[in-house]
Amino acid sequence: MIYKMGIDIGSTTVKIVILDENDEIIYKCYSRHLSQVRAKTAELIELAKDIIGENEIKITVTGSAGQGVAQTCGFEFVQEVFVTGEMVKKYYPDTDCVIELGGEDAKIIFFKGGLEERMNGSCAGGTGAFIDQMSLLLDVSNEELDKLSLQAEKIYMIASRCGVFAKSDIQPLLNQGAKKENIAASIFQAVVDQTITGLAQGRDITGNILFLGGPLYFFEGLRNRFKETLKLSESNAVFPEIAPYAVALGAAISADNSNFVYKYEDVVSLLNKSANMPDNIQHSEPLFKNEEEYSEFIKRHSENKLNETDINTYSGNAYLGVDCGSTTTKIVLVSEDYGILYSYYTANGGNPVDIILEQFKYIRKLCVGRGDPGAPQNPTPKIIIKSAAVTGYGEELIKNAFSIDFGIVETIAHFKAAKYFNPKVNFILDIGGQDIKCFKIKNDAIDNIMLNEACSSGCGSFIESFAKSMGYTVEEFCKTGIYAENPVDLGSRCTVFMNSSVKQAQKEGASIGDISAGLSTSVVKNALYKVIRIHDASELGENIVVQGGTFLNDAILRAFEKKIERNVIRPNISGLMGAFGCAVYAKEKTTPAAEPGVDVTSVLSLEELNKFTHSSNTTNCGLCTNKCGITVNKFSNGKRYISGNKCEKPLGIRENEKLPNMYHFKLDYIKSIINSSQKYPDMQTIGMPLGLNLYEMLPFWHTLWTNLGFNIEVSDISSRDLYQTGQHSIPSDTMCYPAKLIHGHIENLISKNINNIFYPCMTYNFDEKISDNHYNCPVVAYYPELLKANMSGLHNINFMMPYFDVSNKKIFVKKFMQYFNSLENFDKTKTNKKIIKNAIDKAYKSQDLYYEVILSEGENAIKFAGENNHKLIVLCGRPYHIDPEINHGIDKMLNSFGCVIITEEVASAIIKTKPKTKVLNQWTYHARLYNSAEFVSKRKNAELIQLVSFGCGIDAITTDEVREILEKNSKLYTQIKIDEINNLGAAKIRIRSMLAVSGEK
Amino acid sequence: MKNAKNHEFTYPVFKKSMKKDYTILIPNMLPVHFKLIGKIMQNYGYNVELLETTGNQIADAGLKSVHNDTCYPALLVIGQFIDALESGRYDKNKTALMITQTGGGCRASNYIHLLRKALEKRGYGYIPVISLNFSGLDKKASFKINIPMAFQLFYSILFGDLIMLLYNQCKPYEIIKNDSEKAENEAFEICNNLFKKGKMISYKTVKNTYKKIIDIFNKVERRTEVKIKVGIVGEIYVKYSPLGNNDLEEFLRSVGAEVVVPGLLDFCMYCVTNSVIDRKLYGKRFIKANTYNFVYKWLLKKQSGVISAIKENSGFTPPVRFDVTMDGVKDYISHGVKMGEGWLLTAEMVELIHAGAGNIVCTQPFGCLPNHIIGKGMIRKIKERNPEANIVAIDYDPGATKINQENRIKLMMSVAKRNLKDYRDIEIDIGAETKSPEISKESKEKDLVNIISSSAASVINSIEASAASVKNSIETSAVSVKTSIEDIINKNKSQKSKTENIS
Questions:
Q1: Interchain proximity A956–B402, CB inside 8 Å
Q2: pLDDT (tens digit per residue) in B203-222
Q3: Are A235 and A72 in contact (CB under 8 A)?
Q4: What is A316-422+581-611's CATH topology?
């Protein structure tokens, strides 16, 4: 008898299925391999010893981590999606589509309408691993996460593209007190969205759907989200019992074709032998050459310490600092001479309010009761908390809840702390759980701030979840790296990519230590190349202070020193620096009290703390059309704190509402054009999607077609819902969000029963004479081609996408006439040459008028800012960045900070000239950015913020050039990367730091 | 201009006087073509060196020198230059760099500027950069090309394409290992000897040379088995450069494919036609368009020359005529799409499908803007009209791991294998990665007989054991032959993995 064995080795698990000669499953097992791929496989096969007995077996290996095993053991390897397809054809022949989620891979196979198999792109992140990471973030087990999700009342928008982004969406929700139940369900929804955008790519998921893979088998909540989102009936959604083993089963079926047969003993011995195979991955030097080097390192770093002062014997003033970070909460109480009276560091597990409440009670008791919290209270405390300050993601929440005196932006807190350790400090690098922050210090002020952009954040917590997934604590995991002899070179990029590098290393048999050390180096490289973007270690300066919880890890610290070839200072309170900085700040800001010894802080007293209660509920703000989801926290002191808001409206602060905001103004102008469209029943209607370059050219095309006797229907202003209606037809998931939105706009027009849609291809833009050429970027120029090829709804309507160059009016008139006369669908009896010429004239005039109005409004704004002493921000982007779904309300946020906002074309029109740039300046929209930089450089009260859509390739060029122009003129450069992420947490820190720094300047 | 003073950027120019003692470094975009181009320039007295370096340090140097989100090709090309400059192999005061430059709305037209910025940042602002381009950007450069040299450069493209085409059609089928490489080198020498004469080369000589090259490859002994044809299209650098695409061609052959790569001439003709199309669409530049139209027709004639040479002298599959390629894409995408590889990329996919190589790897740097439209954006439409099309889009960037890329390519190969069975009723075996790439696993025994019967002598030569004993063993014990062949295969394999280690 010959048995068939399928071995599926995925990124996190091993699955084995054995079939007998009748194709009956006689053995199946599923286990996490914790990166011990070969050992685990052998172990599982050994369990089947009795079942296999003396029978011969044919073997097929599959799975992303299976290649290495197959290669070294000489087993047959078959691609995993392929075997899945074979399995489905045999066992579930009615299936239209298979969705299989694994540890890190997501796959989709379409059977109906031409077989097609797809795997997730390199940017799409993991799914199973992603859920693991999210559980960790919420501090629940996977099972609990699933249970929680079933209780959800509300789904939050969580970015679906990659784990790191999702995390930065979830963290603020947690900090703001959103319910875990809702977040759990939202996490599953994110996985669903990711599958639909990342994989379906233009094909509808309908009919009988077979769901496979571990996560879908184990998580009911995830299954529910899929069913609901895809609108599947019970009979259409098939969740088979075999789900976790399906791929292994497919492999077992394929094994039938294999020509090689093995005995049980052969298999086990081959596997065991392969454990000692040579590897051929890239390695780097060990972190420490020997024990001696390590102890020298330990000794050197132990010198940078803050002394402890015994809280039980100290009496006098004290200052409290709280750093409510993204994953951890840190509290420090210092004495008048900066001795640490008390410190606390913990993972906040998603609920910082409770943690801080407990800690404050404890601290208050210590101050009063002299070290014995149980002792009867002494009415006159010996330690007087003079003031307190709070920073971090949870700053506002905590400040409101506990009446803390000062709330400061994180960057300032860290600078204060670092300065204490080295007054000459000129570079601070802080790697926390989620963010990398670094500041350059010049002339005793923060000269430049670099925060990680969404794509490389989460480095600290990445190591943590990685350690956990391998069955180690983070401390143990990092320890193994210190003594690793051959650290693996894992490259530098976002953590999702690292996952697959690690996979490769595992495949090659690298040890845990080697991987640990490699990851440490990658985290450091990320910080250096992605965030700080150094070219040379000397750029960092002589006096470097590193901090943040991640640097408590010796392996990372060492990797950093090795990479920059320089020793750095890591204070012993590395993880507490934010809190310590707050305490320092609080002390500096406290004027000596008139009555020494009087408690002047506004922080809640013990009595108030004992009475403290806190509740939160979520609702939608109704003050504007955005209808943002907000969380209202209510505290026992009667204070209400609203979080999740994008503007200050729900907070009741309206004084800044009237500040000039050109983003708002431009959008209103566009809306007024749309609203001016009259609809005549006897005229044909032409639809236009409101996105990309049509945002700017709407006056032109609208006027032109109106004057030719058409009704114009413009798609609705973007919204999340609108985006989702078109999401399934996006063919490339790494494209910029503004482009992806267009799909929704087209669907929107189709839903309005528009039969004619006009969206021209435009290689060239208007020539503003500020650049060497006047191109559009490739995406803007040719997007209609992509729409036509991917949106099936366009097949049935008249989609007009002619190629036009509007920069030369004379030629345009000629070309447009030719085009118009070639149109077959329209009645052209009422138009003649003269009418067309006239319509074009009006179109150009209308566009000119638009620019004039914007310019004069912009000039008013500039004047207003100057006269009323407001900061003037040139919020640089593209014309389509005025779309509220693209800018997520950053303009309003800036207004709320008291800034006047103008746009890039205003600044550019004022500068007018063509600047000399080091790069090829050949795109109209981008040329405006360089002029804006020149504009800002000339004005004292102006700053520039560049909005960059993730995936914008051309901005890789413009950002560097704009930065260079600004820095040459001693101006700050601030870049905000935006995406579908709907949360402004990081942007806010960035903007506040920038304002704080430019204020100091 | 008010700020003119601050913004006057001047760059070192390659001066005539530098010709005698400067080394000019060029990046290795197309291994065959650039080698020929390098030789031509050497013949004209420029001391040119083609950079063939590999390794992680190249991407690292790139990451340090340019914006991390810059396209991967720019990162690699610049990284390779910086890495070379810092290797100590060159006198930095006597080195110039040469970079190719496309124009147009793609950000790739910025390469030379990014290179200069990078050089400045690294403190090498004094090193002259020479632009090699089609569209007259960067007019300051004084690297002069005279007419005979221009013709030689042009012919190097034709020869390069021809050698690449023939090599790709021989390599997977060669019976004697490395015969194809030998042929390639021989062909290369013929071209080089022709160029060495340094005069105007007559077109007749060129045509003769085609014949000579074809004859050389005709002599490579080949098996007649059916292999899966896999086309490679994509952004020009990652399409051709082994450094950019993790040696994609070699990998595809190792999993049992015959690689089909459309030539460089197509790209040149695409660039030329764009001016003609611009005139048609936007009414621009009448004179320029007419000139280009003339050039286009001339190029088309030259391409036809190559095609008929192949047809007349061999059984190799010639390239598809450019006008056919161009016409074939009309129903998919407008010829107005002219940024990056533009409509040509889509056209090449369609052409490959029509030519029976419907299995396609569409390569692009991560986040490549034009490829969103012309590559990934068109795949759906192509598949709708050609159900047998089997296209996989692969992104390349410094963080992308080989394993992920290879896994996706293997999926494409699995589907290709099934398609072959479903559409053409041919069953073959691929996925032989556990065995030698030279001989596919399952058909090993069958192959063995084929090999030995078709060319016993050559097998015997390649087998180190004595001819007699092998011959005997065929009759007496097929098994022992199998073992000895397996030995060789293993040896080859270990050698291969060794080379992989080194690289």
A1: no
A2: 999 999 999 999 999 999 99
A3: no
A4: Nucleotidyltransferase; domain 5 (3.30.420)
- The pLDDT tens digits of the residues spanning B291-326 come to 889 999 999 999 999 999 999 999 999 999 999 999
**What fold does the segment set A97-235 form as a domain?**
Nucleotidyltransferase; domain 5 (3.30.420)
| Interface probe with B: pick from A76, A122, A742, A946, most Cβ of B within 10 Å | A122
Q: Is A427-568 CATH 3.30.420.40?
A: yes
For the residues A844-852, what does the mean pLDDT come to? 96
Contact present, A966 and A937 (Cβ < 8 Å)? yes
A955:B6 CB<8 A: no
> Which chain B residues in 186-245 lie under 8 Å from chain A, judged by CB atoms?
none
Cβ separation of A785 and B71 shorter than 8 Å? no
Contact B434 A951 (CB under 8 A): no
Q: What are the pLDDT digits (tens) for A107-131?
A: 888 876 556 677 765 444 556 777 8
Q: Which of residues 343-372 of B touch A (CB under 8 A)?
A: 366-372
A427-568 shares the fold of A2-92+249-274: yes
pLDDT of residue B2: 36
Q: How far apart are CA B75 and CA B82, in angstroms?
A: 10
How distant is the Cα of A559 from the closest Cα of chain B, in angstroms?
Answer: 16
Q: What is the ipTM of this complex?
A: 0.81
Domain locations in chain B as residue ranges? 10-144, 444-502
Domain boundaries, chain A: 2-92+249-274, 97-235, 316-422+581-611, 427-568, 614-645, 646-1001
Residue B9: pLDDT band by 50, 70, 90 thresholds? Answer: low
Which band of pLDDT confidence, cut at 50, 70 and 90, is reported for residue A946?
very high
Question: Per the CB < 8 Å rule, is B395 touching A530?
Answer: no
* CA–CA separation, A123 and B5 (whole Å): 44
Q: Which CATH architecture has domain B10-144?
A: 3-Layer(aba) Sandwich (3.40)
- Which residues 367-426 in chain B show a CB within 8 A of chain A? 367-374, 376-381, 383, 387, 395, 397-404, 407-408, 410-411, 413-415, 418
Alpha helices in A633-736 (DSSP H): 662-676, 694-707, 720-726
Could you please state the CATH topology (level 3) that the domain comprising A2-92+249-274 is classified under: Nucleotidyltransferase; domain 5 (3.30.420)
Instruction: Tell me if B403 and A504 make a contact (CB, 8 A cut-off).
Output: yes
- pLDDT on residue A492: 56
Of A494, A498, A957, the CB nearest to B107: A957
Residue in chain A nearest B386 by alpha carbon: A114
Query: Which residue from B148, B162, B160, B194 is spatially nearest to B305, judged by alpha carbons?
Result: B162
* A735 and A202 Cβ atoms separated by less than 8 Å: no
Kindly state the tokens that stand for B271. Answer: 């660039």
> How close A608 comes to chain B (CA, Å)?
52
| Residues whose CB falls within 8 Å of the CB of residue A126, separated by 6 or more in sequence, listed in order | A11, A103, A104, A105, A163, A496, A499
Measured between CA atoms, the residue of chain A closest to residue B415 is A82
How many CB pairs below 8 A link A and B? 238
pLDDT digits (tens, 9 = 90+) for B390-423: 999 998 987 666 777 887 888 888 888 878 777 6
Query: Are the beta carbons of A117 and B411 separated by less than 8 Å?
Result: yes
Asked if residue A191 lies in contact with residue A226, where contact means CB atoms within 8 angstroms, the answer is: no
To probe the interface with B, which of A495, A785, A911 has the most B CB atoms within 10 Å?
A785
Contact state of A77 with B401 under an 8 Å Cβ cutoff = no
Dig out the tokens for B121 from the structure. Answer: 């940042």
Q: Does residue A353 contact residue A601 with C-beta atoms inside 8 Å?
A: no
Tokens 């849609």 correspond to what residue?
A757
Instruction: Using alpha carbons, select from B285, B413, B181 the residue that is nearest to residue A764.
Output: B285
Per-residue confidence (pLDDT) for residue A434, from 0 to 100: 64
Residue linked to tokens 């691993």: A129
- Give helix A778-790 / helix B377-385 axis angle, nearest 10°: 30
